[in-house]
Amino acid sequence: MMLENKIGVIFGVANKRSIAWACAQACAAQGAKLAFTYQADRLKENVEDLAATLDGSMVVQCDVSDQATVDAAFDAIGKKYGKIDFIVHSIAFAPKEALEGEYVATSREAFRTALEISAFSLSQIALAAMPLMTDGGSIVTMSYYGAEKVVMNYNVMGVAKAALEASTRYLAADLGARNIRVNAVSAGPINTLSARGVKNMGSLLSYVGERSPLKRNVTAAEVGSTTMFLVSDLSSGITGETIYVDCGYNIMGI
Ligand code: NDP
User: Which residues span the domain enclosing 123?
Assistant: First the structure.
């Protein structure tokens, strides 16, 4: 029970395939109590049904493009639990038309939206969580290899993930003195709702599965267990890092 008496907030459960849900299950199995956020009413029931399977959890609305909902969510979480020990930030968004074709054609609006929802939200959430992280804490976000190498159709989301990884380092430097650690997990491709928004995701999964050292794609459960490690005291000396959980794909050259 590595997370006994720990309170976590999980951002980004859309359904049972979500990486955030795998993270939640791994953390709950180690004794954590969890608050879940959902973006809008359309997902409320899904998230409530999943959260109901875990003792002591709560569910609150939080759309990171609306600061008032972020503030209200942390207020409600603070009232129920009195503190936060860790956060799993597992949200990203870019308009569908920006996730196909040429990156050069990305509109100002798509760029702004992708960077705001997928990258700025990490520092926004860290700032809102700080007053409740009174015993230190750990923040984990989800990135992807498209942050550093060109991945066809990933386009502006790759740029957003590069910003997210840089933001992870700057936040780690800012928050370290408060004993709050900030790390990113760079997950290999997984067939989720968001992933299906990237054109030709099926071919990407086969390509990576064939070429990674482990000759398969990573599972959400594997991302979940690494995230559990990163929010636990087992990783107390690690901050500002991007940790690959991708069956080794990133190490391959030709
Ligand atoms: P999901 O679609 O299951 O999760 C994405 C979540 O982001 C959804 O819950 C979504 O809510 C939420 N979200 C989007 N916009 C907002 C917003 N404005 N405010 C609050 N929440 C919002 O997909 P994944 O589990 O795949 O994605 C989780 C994270 O993992 C993302 O950061 C993704 O980029 C990253 N990742 C995914 C990989 C993959 O191959 N699947 C690989 C590497 C990283 P809603 O549905 O309501 O929009």
Answer: 7-251
The rounded Å distance from CA 134 to ligand 1 centre is: 28
CB atoms within 10 A of CB 109: 10
Ligand 1 centre distance from Cα of residue 210 (Å): 25
Catalytic residues: 144, 154
Within a domain: residue 2?
Answer: no
pLDDT one-digit tens code per residue, 77-127? 999 999 999 999 999 999 999 999 999 999 999 999 999 999 999 999 999
**Contact 218 CB / ligand 1 (< 6 Å):** no
Separation between Cα atoms, residue 61 and residue 122, nearest integer Å: 17
Nearest atom, ligand 1, residue 20 CA: 25
Report CA(75)–ligand 1 centroid distance (Å). 23
Q: Give the CATH number, domain containing residue 95.
A: 3.40.50.720
| pLDDT tens, residue by residue, 175-205 | 999 999 999 999 999 999 999 888 888 999 9
Within a domain: residue 182?
yes
**CA-closest residue to ligand 1 atom 19:** 63
Q: Are 100 and 199 in contact (CB under 8 A)?
A: yes
* Cα 214 from Cα 222, distance rounded (Å): 13
State how many domains the chain has: 1
Confirm whether 12 is domain-assigned.
yes
Q: Cα(185)–Cα(165) distance, rounded to whole angstroms?
A: 9
**Residue 197 placed within a domain:** yes
